[in-house]
Amino acid sequence: MKKVLIAEDSSVIQNLAKKILEFQNFEIHSVKNGQQVLDAMEKEDFDILLLDINMPVMDGMDCARAVRGLADAEKANIPIIAITGNARNYTMDDFKSAGFNDMLAKPLNFDALVAQVKALTEK
Q1: Any idea which residues bear 4-aspartylphosphate here (predicted)?
Q2: How far is the first Cα of the chain from the last one, in angstroms, to the nearest whole number?
Q3: What does the pLDDT look like over 24-63, one tens digit per residue?
């Protein structure tokens, strides 16, 4: 079973994404900010990260850069999807340069969420 780590400070979005992905047989772990993502990655391995861009403590952009800079090459190369409510503030190039593989705009299109997670974890 593929393990997904969702970092999202909105419980509503976190819970919806969790339900939808669990229905697709993914194991979901949830945290509220980028620092908690890094802490969780130290303890266990995940197959993909879903990072909200606007989070307290450490936002998604800084978190993606930190993950890409990890010493463990396997962890540093994990697929990462940006979740953003302010897609206009960033271009796809901004996300790519921060280390994201893809992005999803809010309100989330759950079909797109499932399709992207599957595409990035079926390697």
Answers
A1: 52
A2: 13
A3: 999 999 999 999 999 999 999 999 999 999 999 999 999 9
Options 3.30.360.10, 3.40.50.2300, 3.30.465.10, 3.40.50.720; CATH of 3-121: 3.40.50.2300
- Which tokens is 34 given? 């980028």
User: Structure tokens of 5?
Assistant: 């780590």
The amino acid that residue 43 corresponds to is K
In the chain the beta strands, taken as DSSP E runs, fall at 3-7, 27-31, 48-52, 80-84, 102-105
Judge whether 108 and 13 are in contact, CB under 8 Å. Answer: yes
Within 10 angstroms of residue 113's Cβ, the number of other Cβ atoms is: 19
